[in-house]
Structure formats: C-alpha cells, structure tokens
Known about the structure:
36% of the residues are buried. It contains 10 helices and no strands. The chain is mainly alpha-helical.
Amino acid sequence: MPKSHASTPWLMKHSALSYANQWFMTDRKFMKELRKNGSQEIDARVLGTLAAKYMVARGFKTERGDPLSSSQRWGTAAVHLTAAVQSPEQAEVKVDTLAIELGKIAPVKRVPSKLLSAATKFLWFAGEHDVRILDKRAVDALGRFRGARGTLGANYKQYATVWKEQFDAHEKVLEEALFDLPRQLVWTCIPSDVHAEAKAVFKELWFADRIFDKYLWTLGVGVDGGATSFV
C-alpha cells in the first residue's frame, strides 16, 4: 500500500508487526551476542556483522590487499564502544565522543567523518537504550513533520529532542498498536515456542521506541513508497 494512502494508525500497526519480525530475525541475536552474558567487552566479530546489517560499515574504509584491515577496524571500534558504554557521561556526550572516535578508525575521505549513525546504533545494541538511533530515513521523516530537515542529521542532541517530541505526539496511536500486537503473533515469523518471550519483550519500553523507529524509517523511504520491511 502506498504510504500516501495509509492512515497513521495503519502504518503504526504495520510498523509494530514489522518490528516484531525484525526483533526475532535480527535484533534479538545482536542484543544477546554483542555483549555475551552481560559482559562489558564488545564482541568485535558481532559488531562487524551488525555494522553491515545496519548499513554503517560503508563509513569505514577497508584497505586493498590487506585482508586483516576489516577485522582490525572492528576490533578498534569495539574498544571505543566498550569505553563509551562504561563512561558515566550523558547519552548525547557518549554519542558525540564515540562518533568522532569511529570516524578516525578508517576514514573513507581524507577528512574523518563524524559517524553519528554508527555510534547510535552501536550504543543502542550494546544496551544503551536511552540513545535514539539516528538514521537518514528517520531524519527525513522527522524533517517532514517539522517542515524542514535543518541540521537533524548532523546534530544528535537536536535529533533526539525532535524524535522525543514526535514520539510523544504519536503516543496514543503507538499504545494502540502495542495493545493489538500480541494478538497478531500468528501473523509473524515468530514460532509458537518463542511467543511467551515475545509477549514479555513487547512490554519493554525500548520495544515501543523501536516500533516508532520503524514507523519513521517506513515514512522516510519516500512519500509514495510502499510500507517496507527489514529483517
């Protein structure tokens, strides 16, 4: 269905069902394996896979003729991520600091980039669920809500503020989608023996955040593009 023809409640329910599938097929594994057994240490191999899946690996250059460069960059990134997770600083400081450090590892351009999207995604999957995941699709959607994109994609604090404003504005329709979700389990790819775990996860605050992320990402693909999936 083209998004221009879909109501907000329909899109939010689609996003809830879509993220339930994504949680089971993709995110659940990363959340469990990035920091195994609650360890502070980040698994560099899992981090590299996460970067590829969430499309931020392209922000890191791999040296030609050096097959070790890929594993080395994720090892270095894992060290910086571990330091960020252990830092007592507030979320926006952690994000900005990590984004700068990640940009120095293997810059694609001569001038190192500030890798905000990678920093937010890495921190969130490392358990920092107060961090808002920054993605171009979400930036585009939020920009349309406020009438202008501005510097949302380059300013994490501003992005997080606008994200929260829109989350609060959509709170009622999001609650309705969450209320319906347990009854929609039969339509997901989640097997019956995982339904109890899924229902418990649906009650987590971070799960509602991720449904809203999915809603923004769906809107951000394009005005008339179909409601998309990601697993």
